[in-house]
Amino acid sequence: MISAAAFPRRVVIAVCLIVGLAATAAGQGVTTSSSRYWKVVEDALGRKGTANPGNVLKFGFPRNDLAVVLDGVTLKPALALGSWVAFQRIGDHAMAMGDLVLLEDEVESVMASLQQNGIEQTALHNHLVGELPHVMYMHIRAIGNPGRIARAVRMALEFTKTPLEQATAAPAAALDLDTTSIVRIIGVRGKVNAGVYQLSIPRREKIRHDKMEIPAAMGVATAINFQSTGAGKAAITGDFVLLGREVNSVIWALSEAGIKVTALHSHMIGEDPRLFFMHFWAIDDVPKLARGLRAALDRTGPRR
Predict the structure, then answer these.
(1) Can 31-168 and 171-304 be said to share one CATH topology?
(2) pLDDT in tens, 161-199
């Protein structure tokens, strides 16, 4: 056995630093192999992802190129115009799910590209009603090599005008929105994203596909977004994630509150339990909107 004294002092120090850094990374849930795994995806998509519970890395592609107007409100990308794809690590492979925001003349080329590269489409539809220009939403899914999936998604997005270079984060502006009332009434604290207040409310049930649990960050949590329109009012949109037995009672609750249901459909194929996604739209006083949304949430089984 070689004694520690046989090594130069600087070598011993270097070894200690490496061991210490490795221990720190492990304590934070970060490993060298995990970093290498996600780097392939980040390099292919040309941007950094956001880590989420359930070993999920999520990437956003806001449609900053679009100027979409509905009921006189110019929609911020974070309100309803954010393409995204999320990757869940499964061993050396990944399950990916996402939602691509497309103009009508982009749909055909994007779908053909995804099909040619092994990415499934699980839904294609509207989320809003009456917006100009009209926007379509294409939901996608894939399982396999994460780098291959990421390259396929990037290639498909090149058939659109989606900004593919990651923009430098702009300084956060003051949010003209009564978030205190929102939190107090709905009972969920949200986050500010590019001028929009976003809430995410997971279901209580475990959602599975092919016996694998799908984390909430993969698109199976109720999403509620507020964008200020001034004078204490806001525009809201998002989607409720519902079981079949909850659908009509939620429609009733939203309608009673003056909140329009703009779409009811599936986003996935083969999930268990079967889910329905209900999109909505309204412009009104913030507390009134929050009370209507809370009444609808009370008719579902999400965790609050």
Answers:
(1) yes
(2) 999 988 776 666 779 999 999 999 999 999 999 999 999
Strands 69-70 and 233-242: unpaired
Is CATH 3.30.310 what the domain over 171-304 is classified as, yes or no?
no
Beta strands in 149-232 (DSSP E): 191-193, 196-202, 208-209, 212-213, 221-230
| Structural domain spans, the chain | 31-168, 171-304
Distance between CA atoms of residues 300 and 214, nearest Å: 19
Of all residues in the chain, what percent are helix, strand and coil, respectively (each to 5)?
35, 35, 30
The model carries a pTM of 0.87
**Residue pointed to by tokens 């100027």:** 67
The encoded tokens of residue 127 equal 């989320």
Q: Where are the alpha helices (DSSP H) in the chain?
A: 9-27, 32-45, 77-80, 104-116, 146-157, 179-186, 247-256, 286-297
Those residues whose C-beta lies under 8 Å from the C-beta of residue 302, and which sit 6 or more positions away, are: 201, 202, 203, 204, 221, 222, 241
| Look-up of token digits 């070993």 | 55
